[in-house]
Design goal:
Elements lengths: L1 E5 L6 H12 L3 E3 H11 L2 H11 L6 H12 L8 E4 L5 H13 L6 E6 L2 H9 L1 E4 L5 E3 L18 E2 L6 H24 L3 E5 L4 H14 L7
Parallel strand pairs: 1-3, 1-4, 2-3, 4-8
Antiparallel strand pairs: 5-6, 5-7
Helix pairs in contact: 1-8, 2-3, 4-5, 6-7
Bound molecules: adenosine monophosphate (AMP).
Length: 221
């Protein structure tokens, strides 16, 4: 099964994708996580991406394409994948279609996680991320059992440098600007499903699982 999770920053794409990937035994491919790995390793790609990320801007499409081509060359994607954070605009959607056509693959579900602005700001300004396994926590909504330590791997938690309110607003503006064409594109292809993602993570997960297990067409938009 091949699933794309769409939605603004703070919609919970990363959280949902990680849990869903474990449940469905599919690889979770997050372009944001791949970029952050490159930044922390100091790779050439990381050096080129870092400034864009810190300003809340999109990293140029060509860089992301190269990074994804490498990821899609790995054998684990033959079972399917959950794509989180890509595509971010119509050009990327078309690039993805070309890449997948070469692999003779298509997309089964594009799930739009609809989230209100107040919820986004509240979630992102309190988000904590595990530096080792990438799992997300929240100071209030989902606090770790031990302060600043990951429940799953004991890794050290940190706040992302782009989770400051000013950068969050910039990232949101970029999303609003780029996403409408993308959403229309998948709607026209009859792949788009919409889920309200304002509630807590467990409830949203149940909605996603019900959708992919039963192909609930009442959520199609
Ligand atoms: P995320 O972890 O998905 O919130 O992404 C963090 C940052 O990485 C974004 O604000 C962008 O700067 C960059 N990024 C992630 N995915 C993409 C993408 N598909 N295209 C361009 N930039 C991206």
């Amino acid at each position: 099964m091949r699933i794309i999770l769409l939605g603004p920053p703070g919609a919970g794409k990363g959280t949902q994708a990680k849990i869903l990937a474990g449940k469905l035994r599919l690889p979770h491919i997050s372009t944001g996580d791949l970029l952050r790995q490159n930044v922390s390793q100091g790779s050439e790609l990381g050096k080129q991406a870092k400034d864009f990320m810190n300003k809340g801007l999109l990293v140029p499409d060509e860089l992301i394409k190269e990074m994804l081509l490498q990821r899609f060359a790995q054998p684990d994607i033959s079972a399917g994948f959950i794509l989180d954070g890509y595509p971010r605009n119509l050009r990327q959607a078309k690039t993805l279609e070309e890449m997948l056509a070469r692999l003779k693959m298509g997309i089964d579900f594009v799930i739009d996680l609809k989230t209100s602005e107040a919820v986004i700001i509240q979630r992102l300004s309190g988000r904590l991320v595990c530096g080792a396994c990438g799992f997300n926590f929240h100071v209030k909504n989902m606090p770790p059992k031990k302060a600043m330590a990951c429940d799953h791997c004991q890794g050290q938690l940190y706040q992302r440098s782009d989770d400051k309110e000013e950068t969050i607003r910039k990232r949101l503006a970029v999303y609003v600007n780029e996403s409408s064409e993308l959403i229309e594109h998948y709607q026209a292809k009859k792949k788009l499903y919409s889920i309200c993602a304002d509630e807590d993570a467990q409830l949203v997960l149940e909605r996603i699982v019900a959708l992919v297990e039963n192909r609930n067409d009442s959520l199609k938009v």
